[in-house]
Every structure is written in C-alpha cells, then in structure tokens.
Write a structure and sequence with these properties.
With about 350 residues, this protein is α+β, with helices and mostly antiparallel strands. The chain has helices at about 10-20, 55-60, 90-95, 100-110, 120-130, 155-160, 215-235, 270-275, 280-285, 310-315; strands at about 5, 25-30, 45, 65-70, 115-120, 135-140, 150-155, 170-175, 180-185, 195, 200-205, 205-215, 240-250, 255-260, 300-305, 325, 340-345. It is built from ten helices and 17 strands. The protein binds adenosine-5'-triphosphate and magnesium ion (2 copies). It comes from Altericroceibacterium endophyticum.
Length: about 350
C-alpha cells in the first residue's frame, strides 16, 4: 500500500501508525528526536529538524499524504512539501498554534472563549487584570501542553509581583464550569463530517486525568451548540482529518477553551469504545476513504491516563480482565509524563 507521513514521534503518532497498518498502509515518521515511540511501530523514520528543507522534500517524495500528531510543527518550512499532500492544511496549524489567533478565529465564527487579553508587557498585564479581573490564568500563546506554560493568578496584587516570561502571553479569566468536554470530529475533503460522543473530561494539575461516557445531562445539553461551532471551524479551515475543540460547560452554555488539529487524548476511549476509533477515521479521512461509524459501543466507557506510571505498575492493571491497556513504550517514567492509558467498557 501507499506510505503515510506523520510529523511528530509521540504516542499519538504511534496510535495513528497502528491504525494505518491495520488498513494496509506503511507509515513514515518525521521528528527531530533521535528515537521515537511512533517510529518503533512504523516502516520508516526520518530524524531531522523541523526546518530541514532537504529532509522535508525527501520525506514528501516518499509519502502519498502527510499529517501531524503534533500541532507545533513550524509552518514556514512546510512550503518544501506540496500543499496537496498535507492533511490538514497549514492554515489549521497556524490558527491552533497560537491561543490568540485561535480565540479570534472562534469569536469570528460566533463562538465564546473566556474573556482574554494579549499580554506583551507589564503594562498589558496590569490592563488585563483591570479589565478582566482575577482569578485568571496567564498562558504562553504558543507551545503549551499538559498545563505547561501556565500561571494561575489568584489575585490582582499577586499579578503585580509576577516576573513575566519573555514570550508572547495571553491572560484569561478563570471560567467557573460544571464540567469539561471536547468535540472530536472527522472531516473528509468533500465536507462529510462525523462526531464522536463527547466524554466528560477531568483534568488534574492541567493534565487530562480521565474521560468518562456518558457525560451527563449538563454536558449533553451543550454538545449540539459546540458541535455546530466545531463543524463551522472545520469548514472554514477546509479541514481534512480529525479536529478537536475543548469546551467548558457553564451555566451560560459552552465556553471554548482551545483547539487541536489532530487526534486527541480525550478521544482515546474510541479505540475500544466506538465502532471506529478517532485514529482509524483520521487515516480514512486523509486517505479519502469512507468514514466509519463513530457510535459508542456499550453503555459506559472510562479512559484513565497513566501519568508517571511504570511498566510494572501498568501491567498490574491487567488483573482486571475488562481493562484495555495501552502502554506507549516510553523509556523513562518521569513524573507528570503520560506513559499510557487504560480503557474500560461496560456492556
Ligand atoms: P492540553 O494538554 O489540553 O493541550 P494545555 O496545556 O493547552 O492542555 P489548557 O487546555 O489551556 O492547557 O488548560 C488545561 C486545563 O486547565 C483545562 O482543561 C482546564 O481544566 C484548566 N483551564 C485552562 N484555562 C482555564 C480557564 N480560563 N478557566 C478555567 N480553567 C481553565
Ligand atoms: Mg492545548
Ligand atoms: Mg487543553
């Protein structure tokens, strides 16, 4: 079969490569690291910098289509790759790489983010606190994940004492939410769209701890509005593949948090919990194949992340015969690192 290129070498790439292999494709991983847990299960691996244009050109020559498992791939060097090979396109990356652009984009579509203000100086910060108030969260505009690059601001006087990092920032008001959920969709180039059921997501210290289905009535009520926004975002971007939008369910309806132009941790339950997983439908969408049914299998599903968990601890989870263990094969179990996940389905 044809070769699919994946930019980024982490667990999302690994799970995409497994889904691709099942459909008869070979994967070629492109990542700057010397070793990659996605490359471990793929046919080829290019270890090169994101801006190595010669390496990108050779990678593109080898691949029928190229996708991403990491949204912070620098966009400019991607001009070395024929645009028609990239799925999704670079516009989706540009928007999703910058919290300010992403909030403006969603606002233009009629969506509602938390109150926010860009912060590039101490004066901006003071003004942001004046207009938005505290508590709030100061975030780097780019490159954050798992709650990294975020500072909770409990009160206005604490904000004054803050040493601002030398990078573009954004200040957001703290949203009081009843729950968190994400809309995960897959879109084909012809505009066909499908959605997975939205789980209730629980974060601990900024890292996703678990996703549970069914999500409960508060979230379920807000999903239709959130889906409409997500579908409009996908359409506006001419999006191909799986797209994720994270939301807070509040008393005034869904508040947009952020988007990811890729498969998402809150959709990992779909490997066993849906007729077709997010990984498989991403591969199907970028290869122009029909999308599979996204219906949830069973009456309840729980996905728990294994954060900092050792291989030994993970294997012990198999004592539960209903547990589906996904262990990513990372070499060291640093605290706070996503080492795997475990899914449990109740018929
Ligand atoms: P991810 O790993 O999902 O990409 P991230 O580092 O980009 O995470 P966010 O999604 O911005 O981080 O924030 C992580 C979590 O922190 C959120 O899921 C939510 O629980 C909490 N959080 C972030 N922003 C806000 C906010 N404005 N109000 C309330 N809670 C927030
Ligand atoms: Mg994020
Ligand atoms: Mg997030």
């Amino acid at each position: 079969g044809a070769t699919i290129g994946i930019m980024g070498g982490g667990q999302l790439g690994r799970m995409l490569a497994v889904a691709a292999a099942q459909l008869g494709y070979r994967c070629h991983i492109y990542a700057p690291e010397a070793e990659s847990i996605a490359a471990d299960v793929s046919a080829r691996f290019t270890s090169a910098d994101w801006d190595d244009r010669a390496a990108l050109t050779a990678f593109a020559d080898d691949c029928a289509v190229i996708t991403y498992e990491f949204e912070n791939v620098p966009v400019e060097p991607l001009t070395a790759i024929p645009a028609e090979k990239l799925a999704p396109g670079t516009r989706a990356l540009e928007v999703a790489q910058d919290r300010l652009l992403e909030k403006r984009f969603i606002t233009e579509l009629g969506g509602r983010p938390a109150p926010y203000a860009p912060v590039d100086s101490a004066a901006d910060m003071a003004e942001a606190i004046r207009s938005i108030g505290a508590p709030g969260i100061l975030k780097t505009r780019r490159d954050g994940y798992d709650g990294k690059g975020q500072w909770r601001i409990a009160s206005a006087d604490l904000a004054e004492e803050l040493d601002l990092p030398e990078t573009p920032l954004i200040y957001e008001g703290l949203v009081r939410f009843a729950g968190e959920f994400s809309v995960i969709l897959a879109r084909r180039a012809d505009g066909e769209i499908c959605f997975w059921e939205s789980a209730q997501n629980t974060h601990v210290k900024g890292i996703l701890a678990k996703s549970v289905l069914p999500a409960g009535p508060t979230i379920a009520e807000q999903v239709p509005v959130a889906r409409k926004l997500a579908a409009e975002a996908a359409e506006k971007l001419g999006y191909v593949g799986v797209l994720t939008l994270e939301f807070f369910a509040t008393d005034d309806g869904p508040v947009f948090n952020e988007m990811a132009p890729r498969v998402h941790n809150s959709g990992h339950w779909s490997t066993e919990g849906a007729v077709t997983s997010q990984f498989e439908n991403h591969i199907r969408a970028i290869c122009g194949l029909p999308l599979g049914d996204t219906a949830t299998v069973g009456s309840s599903v729980e996905m728990r992340n294994l954060i900092g968990t050792s291989g030994e601890e993970a294997l012990a989870l198999l004592e539960d015969p209903q547990a589906h263990l996904h262990f990513y094969g990372k070499l060291d179990a640093r605290p706070g690192r996503k080492m795997g996940h475990v899914t449990r389905i109740d018929a």
